[in-house]
Amino acid sequence: DGGITQSPKYLFRKEGQNVTLSCEQNLNHDAMYWYRQDPGQGLRLIYYSQIVNDFQKGDIAEGYSVSREKKESFPLTVTSAQKNPTAFYLCASRDSSLFLSDTQYFGPGTRLTVL
Amino acid sequence: AQKITQTQPGMFVQEKEAVTLDCTYDTSDQSYGLFWYKQPSSGEMIFLIYQGSYDEQNATEGRYSLNFQKARKSANLVISASQLGDSAMYFCAMRGNTNAGKSTFGDGTTLTVKP
Predict the structure, then answer these.
(1) Is A41 within 8 Å of B107 when comparing Cβ atoms?
(2) Which residues of B65-86 are buried (b: 16+ CB within 10 A; e: fewer)?
(3) Which of A103, A111, B28, B86 has its CA 20 to 30 A from that of B41?
(4) CB–CB of A42 and B105 under 8 A?
(5) Using CB atoms and an 8 Å cut-off, which of residues 76-105 of chain A contact chain B?
């Protein structure tokens, strides 16, 4: 089955710790995205990558870092510099960044709680 | 810059009736795409329907249709014959040709279907 997997589903972190959220896709998509969602709100773009070894900051990149060493993987690290990291994190991928009609496919999400 | 506005934080509809969820957008791009997603309480994001800015006909997908009025910059989602399983949060999103890598999401509308 093709799709996007995110792990873990729930993650607890102590203040001051870095934590890495996993995102893997087997859809052979070029583009991958990380979004943050706070309760009752929409999605805000953290980082996105349109090709391997390249990525761009989104609207709320401060306190986050990413890497794109492989086409299928786009891990997100939430650093201790992120002041309010408790949120729901969604990873998405898209076939190509060239065509407007290509929809994004989303993973099941990771719920991060800072204790 | 792009902006999506969803003015209805919450909507109620009786089972088997139709409901319209509002979405207005703003963009300086000549070519753009509009998307609607459904997010159940589980958190996954499900793609529902797409409308291109140059599409002459309104998009339809089963019980979902998109009422696209380009001059008014609106892209309302119409759900016909509502079902209990339609209860969820619904997001309108857009992507423009000047930065096809990025999508902008609205804050969402929570739809509750009453039996």
Answers:
(1) yes
(2) bbbbeeeeebbbbbbeebeeeb
(3) A103
(4) yes
(5) 88, 90, 92, 97-101, 103-105
